[in-house]
Amino acid sequence: MSHGKARKEKNCLNCNARVFGRYCHVCGQENVEPKETAIGLVVHFFNDITHFEGKFITSLRYLLFKPGFLSAEYLRGRRASYMNPVRMYIFSSAFFFILFFSFFSGDTKDTGTITVKDSSGLLKRKTPFLPKEAREQALKGAKTKEDSAIIKKILPADTSKKKDLNDSSTNDDNDFNFLTSDGPKYKSMAAYDSAQQLLPQEKRDHWLQRIFVRRLIIIEEKYGGDNSKFNRALLDHALHSLPKMLFISLPLFALILSLLYIRRKQFYYVSHLVFTIHLFVFVFLMLLLIFTNNKFLASSGWGTFFSIVLWAYMFIYLYKAMRRMYAQRRFKTIVKYLLLLYIALIINSFLFVALFSYSFFNI
Fold first, then answer.
1. Which has the minimum average pLDDT: 124-138, 182-196, 292-306?
2. Residue 347: is its pLDDT beyond 80?
3. CB 3.0-4.6 Å disulfide test: which of 73, 199, 330, 332 passes with 78?
4. Spatial separation of the C-alpha atoms in residues 215 and 359, rounded to whole Å
C-alpha cells in the first residue's frame, strides 16, 4: 500500500496516458505527487522488502511441502502471488553458494603446521616445519616404540634431497614425474619438444597426448612437484566452477523431461524448464540443510538419521513433483522417473569430467 499523496491530474507522469484510478493501466506507475519525503522513501523501501519476503515465504512454503505445485500454478497463469522462478533461482543459488564457500567448503589453504602430543599435552606450531624437522618433532612426541615405527614409516629419514626429474630410476608418488609414451621424463617444454623432434614421425606423441604432456610440464613447473598443493588448487577451482556446471545442467535436465513427455503436446520446453528451475531451487535448500546437519550434528546418531531422511525426501520429492506436474498414472510416472535419474546420472558424470578437465587446464 502506498502512502504517497494522489495527484489531482489524471494523466500519467511516466507515459502520459489517462489514468483511471490510482495506477496507470498502461505502464503501472502510481499516480502520486513526484515530490517524496525522506519518510516516504523509507516507507517505500520497507514495502518493497516485505512484498518480496511475502512472495518468497509463500513460494518457499509451497516449494518445500507441495512438490510440483508452483510449476503447475505458473503454467495455469497464476503468477502474481508467487515469486518469479528465474528470480527465485538466482536468489537461492547465490544464497547457497555464498554460504557454501563461506562455511561448508573447508579451508583449502595449507597452513604447514605440525600437531604433536607429548606429556605436557597438545602442542601446535604455527610456522611450517621442514620435512626433516617434522620427523624429529614427531619422534619426540611419540610415547611408544609402535608410535615411533609408524612415524618412521610415514616420514622417511632422507626427505630433504630433491630428486632429479631426468632420473628415470626414481618414482616418488609425491612428485610430478610424468612419463611420455617413449619413457623419458622432461624438465621443460623445450626439452620435450626437442626430444619429440629427434623421434621418427610414427613414434612421436599424437596431438592429444602432446596437449596433455605439455600441460603436465606446466603443472610441474608451477607447483614444483607438490601433489597436495596441486590437488588443493584443482579442487578449489572445480568447486568455484560448480555454479557454471549447474547452470549448464539446468537446460539439459529440462531437455530430458521434454523427451520423456514428448507426446504431451500441452507442455512446451519452457514448461519443463520452469519445473526444472523449481526443482533446482528445492535441491539448493535441501543441500544447505544437509551441509548444516553434517557440520553440527555429524557425530551424533540423530545427525546421520536426519541426513538419510533429507536425501530420501529429495528422491521422493522428484517423483511427487512429476506426478502433480504431468498428471500421469503411477506406473508411467515411475518408469519415466527411473529413466530421468539414469539419463541425468550419465549426463552429470560427463559434466563432472568436463568440469575437472576445465579446471585441470586453467589452474
1. 124-138
2. yes
3. 73
4. 12
Residue by residue, DSSP assigns 81-134 as: TS--HHHHHHHHHHHHHHHIIIIIS---S----EEEEETTEEEEESSPPPHHHH
Residue 214: all three cell numbers together: 605439455
Q: Tens of pLDDT along 108-120?
A: 444 444 444 444 4
Nearest to 225 by CA among 193, 185, 192, 196: 185
In angstroms, the CA 351 to CA 245 distance is 7
What whole-number percentage of the chain has pLDDT above 90? 24
Mean pLDDT for the stretch of residues 329-355: 92
- Please choose, from the candidates 178, 284, 265, 272, the residue with its C-alpha nearest in 3D space to the C-alpha of residue 223: 178
> Three-class SS of residue 288?
helix
The DSSP string of 45-94 is: HHHHHHHHHHHHHHHHHHHHHSTTHHHHHHHTT--TTS--HHHHHHHHHH
- DSSP states along 145-214: HHHHHHHHHHS-S--SSPPPTT-TT---TTS-----TTS---SSHHHHHHHHHHS-GGGSPPHHHHHHHH
**Burial zone of 7 (CB within 10 Å; 0-12 exposed, 13-18 middle, 19+ buried):** middle
**Residue 10 vs residue 337, higher pLDDT:** 337
How many residues would you count in the chain? 363
Query: Given this model, what pLDDT does residue 72 score?
Result: 92
Query: Distance (Å, rounded) from C-alpha 292 to C-alpha 257?
Result: 31
Does position 48 have pLDDT exceeding 70, yes or no? Answer: no
